[in-house]
Amino acid sequence: MLKNKVPVLVAIAAFNLLIIPGTFSQKKLTTIIVDAGHGGTKDPGATGQYENSLRSKEKDITLAISLKLVAELKKQLPDVNVKPTRTTDIYQDPREKAKDRQRTGRPAIFVHTCR
To answer: Which element (helix H / strand E) includes 57?
Structure first.
């Protein structure tokens, strides 16, 4: 069910980054950070259904969606450096990620799952 919503997520992300007036009008967009959230044993998130599995963990779903989003953004925006915050099941402290964003000033896309 959520698998069918990935194109919608890509469209929303593109809209937020490229179409909203004034957001990046003064600077050229050079980097997009895609943050999958959750991860590792410390923050697995909720458990539910995704791609025919009744025991999917939110950390795995957000990672799968964010990696698909990264691939699509790289395809659609070849001149932009698109980087995921994680590509494997690891925990990253949200406060550290926030500090990184503040330091670099780079835009980030946060992937969250909803029912």
So the answer is: strand 53-57
- HEC string of 3-22? HHHHHHHHHHHHHHHHHCCC
Tokens of 1: 């069910």
Summary count for the chain: helices (H), strands (E): 3, 5
Q: Which amino acid is at 36?
A: A
Asked if 56 and 49 count as a contact pair (C-beta separation under 8 A), the reply is yes
The pLDDT tens digits for 15-40 are 565 555 555 456 677 888 888 888 88
For the segment 59-93, what is each residue's pLDDT rounded down to a tens digit? Answer: 998 899 899 999 999 999 999 888 888 999 999 88
User: Which distant-in-sequence residues (6+ apart) come within 8 Å of 9 by Cβ?
Assistant: 65, 69, 111
Structure tokens at 27: 């600077």
Class of residue 22 by CB neighbours under 10 A (exposed 0-12, middle 13-18, buried 19+): exposed
